[in-house]
Amino acid sequence: MLPCVCWLQLILILLPSVLWTRGENCPATCLCPDPHTVDCSGRGLTRLPDEIPLDVRRLLLADNWIPRIPSDFLVLYSDLVYLDLRNNSLSHIEPGTLSTTSRLVFLDLGSNNLTEIPKGTFGESRSLIKLRLGNNPYLSMVNEEAFLGLTSLRELELERNALSTLKVGALSQLPSLRVVRLEGNPWVCNCNFASLFAWLMENSHKLPNGVEGMECSLPMDGRRVSLTQLSKDSFRECQATLTLTDLLIIIFSGISVSVVAIMTSFFLASTVHCFQRWSKGTKGDEEESEE
């Protein structure tokens, strides 16, 4: 009789977890190891699964074929703090997907097909602490204001993408940044890279492997060199280099000054001429009155 009681107790203990894992609140193709975690990794999904519990906090969707995230996704799942979308088929993230009310702390978008990170992508998600964007082989552009408002972000991964340049403003606007990964990108050592190089040298402690783990190609022959072989003097010529915008401003300013000078000269000449005619007229009137 005693063994039967033990078996019954064991079944009663395990039954709730079994019912939760395979219960109605868990998507059919996923596992739910606890009441707030949904694990749909490696299920061959081509879209987000249906019937995800609204109170989910950890959503694991790695190693699938999901091409997009609905723009209202985090509005529906406002308790979500951990989202893993690594190794899917995402080509872009719609602006507004990550709203300012999002509680998201961890976001992994690595190993996807992202091509750019435009302004407003993350919607000033102030709770975000770790953001993974590495291993996107087509990611070649990050807007200077792409991370604007991510005031709590501590770790940013942009390694092994297709970045040849990156505006310093994209990094300097992250006040809480502690770790940034930029290695494995096809950086080009031109004047566009000069500001980023200066930032990297000043913030090398934020790079896991320091600048030793980064290389860039020389614009003349394409030869790859380590950043440790470069210095600020390597970009000395860039300080005297004028961009097309600078040249246009100078030309426009010169033309404007010339036009103003011509108009001023014409005005002064007209004034002097009128004054001379007025003086002659006044003198003639005086002579006539004397006669």
Describe the structure.
It is a single chain. With 291 residues, the chain is α/β, with parallel strands linked by helices. The chain has a domain at 31-186: Leucine-rich repeat, LRR (right-handed beta-alpha superhelix). It is built from 5 helices and 13 strands. The protein has helices at 2-21, 73-76, 169-172, 191-202, 244-290, and strands spanning 31-34, 37-39, 58-60, 82-84, 106-108, 116-117, 130-132, 141-142, 155-157, 179-181, 187-188, 215-217, 224-226. It has an 8-stranded mixed beta sheet. Strands 11-12-13 form a 3-stranded mixed beta sheet, with no helix packed on it. A two-stranded parallel ribbon has the order 6-8. The longest helix is centred in the last third of the chain and has 47 residues, at 244-290. The protein is elongated and about 105 Å long. 25% of the residues are buried.
Question: Secondary structure elements and their pairing?
Answer:
Blueprint: H1 2-21, E1 31-34, E2 37-39, E3 58-60, H2 73-76, E4 82-84, E5 106-108, E6 116-117, E7 130-132, E8 141-142, E9 155-157, H3 169-172, E10 179-181, E11 187-188, H4 191-202, E12 215-217, E13 224-226, H5 244-290
Parallel strand pairs: 2-3, 3-4, 4-5, 5-7, 6-8, 7-9, 9-10, 11-12
Antiparallel strand pairs: 1-2, 12-13
